[in-house]
Each structure stands twice: as structure tokens, then as C-alpha cells.
Design a protein that fits this description.
By secondary structure, the chain is an all-alpha fold. The chain has one domain (2-114). Helix content is 74%, strand content 0%. It contains 7 helices and no strands. It has helices at residues 2-12, 23-40, 43-53, 58-63, 65-79, 84-110, 126-143. Helix 3 (43-53) runs parallel beside helix 6 (84-110) and helix 5 runs antiparallel to helix 6. The mean pLDDT is 85.
Length: 144
């Protein structure tokens, strides 16, 4: 990413002008790029966790696909320099990683071990509670 961006910056500079960056601006730029691309590569993990825990259904993720594509290009436009190449270099991996996350989440949810069907919880009857209290008292008397 950096060679393309710096090549673009050097390419748009007028001839005879030396491109010199301020170290603070350079570090701000580099840190912003690292954060943007770092967050981009977390997208599949977030998608899989959301689907696996049941927060989002796979169907909802697939329906959100057009919004994710537009959002990826908006994020690319915000976090990259004002050239189309670097925007695409962030947006396309973001979109593809979302798609990878959906594929992995689909596979994981399909192969998720199903919990045994349990009967709904029923409160104890008064006689059951008396029996349980008697059992606990007997255990405590044996200990002391």
C-alpha cells in the first residue's frame, strides 16, 4: 500500500519540487493506515463471532451485502489519501474479508453442536422444597 501511495504523491508533485514530508504528518498518516488496515482484517472475526453467538443471522448478513460494499468504499475514501487506487486497495479487501467471514460463519453455524433440548424450567413444589431442605440439613449435621 505504501509504495503505491507514495508513488502517487510523488507523481502529482510539480516537476522540480522535492517532496519532503513533516515527520509528524508522516507518522500520523502511517498510523492511520495501520489502524485502517488492521481493523479491516478483523472484519471476518467480527462477522463469525456475531453469527456464531446468534446476535446476527446469516440471512441478515447476506441481505446487508450491498450496504457493506458501499460502506467499504466510504471507509476507503475516508481513511486513504485522495486517490482512487488506495481507496480500492482498502475497500476491496474489506469487502472480500466480509464475504469470507460470511462463508466461514455459514459453515460454523451449520456445524455448531446443538444443545440438547431441555424441558422448560419448572419451579419446585412445596413438598419438593421441604425434601430438599431436609436433605441439606442432614448433610450439614453429618459435617458437624
Amino acid at each position: 500500500m505504501f509504495p503505491v501511495v507514495f508513488g502517487f504523491i510523488v507523481g502529482i508533485a510539480p516537476q522540480g519540487v522535492a517532496v519532503m514530508t513533516d515527520i509528524n504528518k508522516y507518522l500520523d498518516f502511517v498510523m492511520t493506515m495501520f489502524m485502517a488496515f488492521g481493523i479491516t482484517f478483523e472484519v471476518p472475526i467480527v462477522v463469525v463471532v456475531l453469527a456464531y453467538t446468534g446476535v446476527v443471522e446469516i440471512r441478515q448478513l447476506k441481505e446487508a451485502r450491498p450496504y457493506v460494499i458501499v460502506g467499504a468504499f466510504v471507509v476507503g475514501a475516508i481513511f486513504t489519501p485522495p486517490d482512487m487506487v488506495s481507496q480500492i486497495m482498502l475497500a476491496v479487501p474489506l469487502w472480500l474479508l466480509f464475504e469470507l467471514g460470511v462463508l466461514v460463519a455459514t459453515w460454523m453455524v451449520r456445524h455448531k453442536p446443538k444443545a440438547e433440548e431441555e424441558a422448560p424450567h419448572q419451579p419446585m413444589s412445596v413438598s419438593d422444597m421441604d425434601e430438599e431442605f431436609d436433605r441439606i440439613e442432614e448433610e450439614q449435621q453429618k459435617i458437624t
